[in-house]
Amino acid sequence: MANILPWTAAADIANTGKDYNLFDLLKAEVVQIKDVFKGVVEAWLGLLQKDITERQRYDLVMQSGLPLLLIIPLRWMAKWFAGVVSRTLVSTHNQVISKGIKHQGVRALARLLLGMAPLLPWIVLLIFSSLFFSEQSEPNLGGSLLVIFQVYMLYVVVSLAAEWFLLSICQGAGSFLTADSTAKLEQRTEMAAKWLLLPWAAIALALHLLGKSLIAHLIETAVWMFSWGVVSYLLHFYRLELMLNLKRLFPASVDPILDKVKESWAFVLVLPLLIPLLLLMFVRVFFTQLLADFAWYQSLSARWFRIKTKAAGEADEDEVAVDVICEDYQRWFSTEKDSELKLPIIDTGLSAAIRKDFDAWNAERSEDNVILITGERGIGKSSALIRFTNGVAQDDPEIIIKRIDVPPKTTSQDAIYQLLGNALEIDMSEGPKALVRHDAEMVPTIVILNKAENLFLAEVGYLQGWRTLLGLTNTKLNNVYWLITINNQSWAYLCNVFGREYQMRNVIRVKRWTQTEIRSLILSRNQLSGYRLQYDDVLIDTRSPVAGTLRNAEQRYFSLLWDGCRGLPMAALELWQGSVKTKGKNVVASIPQLPSSSRIEQFGPKLMFVFAAIVTHENLTTEELVKVTNMQENVIRFALKSALDAEVIVRGSDGRYRITTLWYHTVVSSLNRKNMLHE
Hints:
- By secondary structure, the chain is of the alpha/beta class.
- The protein has five domains: 9-64, no CATH class; 70-285, no CATH class; 298-338 and 513-589, no CATH class; 350-509, Rossmann fold (3-Layer(aba) Sandwich), CATH 3.40.50.300; 597-673, Winged helix-like DNA-binding domain superfamily/Winged helix DNA-binding domain (Arc Repressor Mutant, subunit A), CATH 1.10.10.10.
- It is built from 29 helices and ten strands.
- The chain has helices at 9-14, 22-46, 54-64, 71-98, 104-116, 120-133, 144-172, 179-210, 214-236, 239-247, 255-261, 266-269, 274-290, 295-309, 327-330, 350-364, 381-395, 413-424, 432-439, 464-473, 488-498, 515-529, 546-565, 569-579, 597-601, 605-617, 622-629, 633-645, 664-673; strands at residues 370-375, 400-405, 445-450, 480-487, 507-509, 532-535, 580-583, 586-589, 649-651, 657-659.
- The longest helix has 32 residues, at 179-210.
- One of its GO terms (molecular function) is ATP hydrolysis activity.
């Protein structure tokens, strides 16, 4: 059966070789449209005939447009599918959050899925229908079913996207939306999408049935102009918020021009042109929030901000106004222990990890009775030990806890035996044999050796202390549990000397604190101090909405603080004290100032060897430095004087030299670049 609908009338006229004007083409296409409607009527009449084949009946059904009735069940199925997918995405997000998963990539993906939950199923349906529609080659009224269905899905996508766009605009402008304002916004976006639905259906049908004809192009032009007007009308209700968001993209010098432009009615007609610019800004903000939990991004953003504000380590450190920080406030952030203050505890999970290993040994009295904790100075090893011992003493009072702070530098075998014998109240002159002999009659005992870096010197003949400890910990005991803490640089050196696998099997490497933990450390102490926290103007983004100004300044400050302290709480406390000043009962935080590594490079190679020795041992005297560096004493003393004058090192009351907290990471980074450390 021949095709009833004549699709090529205008094309035949164009291909006759004669010149036809625009009026003739329009006249021919009008005739074509009349033939289309005539063909539809004839198709319905043809369906009443009985003497037709199944193939002819199928063609007549498609040409009659009868399949368009399927749009109702298709619409219902699409809404059901979108609801199922959206609920699944929300449920997946809630499960990820409720399980406390800390993997940053998984949490970021969960947030992305939650944000895409309403739109994602409709976008998927639109893509799949487009792929299926591309395989349809015969244009007829029945084949327009997919076209109409696509228009409906596009209507839903535009409605949801417009609602999200306007909500983002209001949020970006700092406008608070009440329930009535939100309902009105949803009503306006839905109404605008409905106004666009019928014209889009008309242009889709015209392009499908008429192809790239003149009438189809005229309809397309009219529809786009109408759509532009509808979008402009919708946006004009929120042009003040649009302008506030637009100002965030440009410097403040452009504000007077934008203020003049927004008053003209002609500006309403160009509002749709702002959509791509604002979308780019929203995408940037979205990805900024998406990556905010990643350590590399936090560090990168903090360093980029330092570059922009020219406040890197080259800043004059003398500008830190220590004298304007009152002692009443400063004592809450002192790194020295104050028994009068009950400071908040930030649980990083270290004490729980120690307790888990101990409970496993205590339950079975296995051979794994040794655990070593290694980490950087000031990372919280001692505080975790205190919480661990307090917990054990409360839960198991019968267990004896012996804490030994190893004196510096206890490097001989006899000194180790005497130290342990005094603590355990037994004669340790026979070494491991004495422990084995008394083990059966001993009450379960935890022996804590704190500051184990004091058991050696990096010199031939001064490693016996550590070797003696290894002999004791490798002795099979049922009632002694060894808990050893050591500096990470000292542990790295000992691993290179004795071999990592021949020392301790259970090793906990303390991780650096996250930005969230550093923030909790500072803000909890500030809250207890009773002072009101404010931020310096340099940290405040005046172009951001008022509602998010304080939050953004706080995020920017703690990104800078965390990057500067490298996750060490002691360094964070020092940097905090150097970056704040008090005014009455207010405290103002500015950019944390970091020491410059260029000053380290000026000291010369000999002083770098002195720094490397101090970092490896954590603390040394002048005599010990002479031993481990094999340099002359006058050279050592000159190097120490230079470092003391530069405030890179400090000499304690015990005569031992240590790297200062603020300079520690700068010194370590410089030594690592020269390959002078073991980690």
